[in-house]
Amino acid sequence: MSIAFRITLIIVSVFTLLYMCKKVKQEKLQIEYSIFWTLFAIMLVLFSIFPQIADWMSELVGVYSTTNFIFLLIIFILLVKCFQLTMDISKLDNKVKELVQKIAIDEKEKREQK
Amino acid sequence: MKVLIIIPAYNEQDNIERVVKHLTENYPEYDYVVINDGSMDKTSEICHSNHYNIIDLPVNLGLAGGFQTGMKYAYQKGYDCAVQFDADGQHRPEYIAAMIRKIEEGNDIVIASRFVEEKKPTTARMIGSRLITTAIRLTSGAKIMDPTSGMRMYNKKLIEVLANNINFGPEPDTVSYLIKMGAKVAEIQAKMDERIAGQSYLNAVNAAKYMARMLISILLIQNFRNKKKVDFTK
């Protein structure tokens, strides 16, 4: 990994962390949703400070260049996260539907009782 | 002092009757409310047929959302303090009187702690507890012997704060944030029982996730939050 790439990774990670903390401070982000991004940023910083870890891992999985391995890893993690988010949205969608239906039926019953 | 016992319950059909009965028969001086967090089993039916004081959530919100419902109820009804109480029979109501005394002495939070006088054993779970104690000590300077104890009492000011804000879940990271803002925390020695029936959601994977979440939150994220959100000097 080149020095420039390592510095870029560190800068991007630190800014991600700071932005997230700002959103928590503004009460716009729940802490449990910030944990993933914190871990993600810490991982990138670790790879930049200790490139040996990434070198070792890329050799282990048979990727020729360490940079390519990092790209691959990031893509893979984001794909998994994306799938998780899809499942979360589906769950939320279901909850909203159930709530709307319950409110509507309750309202109707209230009106009929009057 | 008007005290409300908040009992979040998710699929606790085997425990809820015993727990609430013990409260109503032996501690009628305290009010309680069961928050049924969208249980799939007979928790709700059992409570309604016994005419327990219960709030049914139409969908599952999780412990934090369920507990906050109880805090909103306490806030609306003007309670002076509220205590978080497990529906599985782990917590003993005999400690509530001592907790109220600590609130009356001017503390904002009182934790029923297993390790004020007794030593922490070195099981895997207690190593987690030690890590959280250390994290809180590092970032706020306070020594909380049993940060993961689920039996915590909050005073009137904190009922309002916890009822109406996000990121104030009933967890150790909130306690650490409150200490940093100047809240006074006391612990009393308490014994806790093993859950009698049903399953705890805390398996090894969930416990590890919980630990990671708490440590990152306490060591990192809580430091960036607004330290003037609540004024504890008044």
Automatic annotation (TrEMBL), chain A:
Q: Which InterPro entries match?
A: DUF2304
Q: Which branch of life, at top level?
A: Bacteria
Q: Which residues cross the membrane?
A: 6-21, 33-54, 60-80
Pfam families hit by this protein: DUF2304
Q: Enumerate the UniProt keywords alphabetically.
A: Membrane, Transmembrane, Transmembrane helix
Q: What protein is this chain from?
A: DUF2304 domain-containing protein
TrEMBL record, chain B:
Q: List, in alphabetical order, the Gene Ontology terms for molecular function in this entry.
A: glycosyltransferase activity
The record's top EC class is transferase
Q: Where does the record place the Glycosyltransferase 2-like domain?
A: 5-160
User: Keyword Cell division on this protein?
Assistant: no
Q: What is its EC number?
A: 2.4.-.-
The cross-references to PANTHER family, in alphabetical order and at most eight, read: UNDECAPRENYL-PHOSPHATE 4-DEOXY-4-FORMAMIDO-L-ARABINOSE TRANSFERASE-RELATED (PTHR48090)
Put simply, this protein is called Glycosyltransferase, group 2 family protein
Q: What organism is recorded for this protein?
A: Roseburia inulinivorans DSM 16841
Mind giving the lineage of the organism this protein is from? Bacteria, Bacillati, Bacillota, Clostridia, Lachnospirales
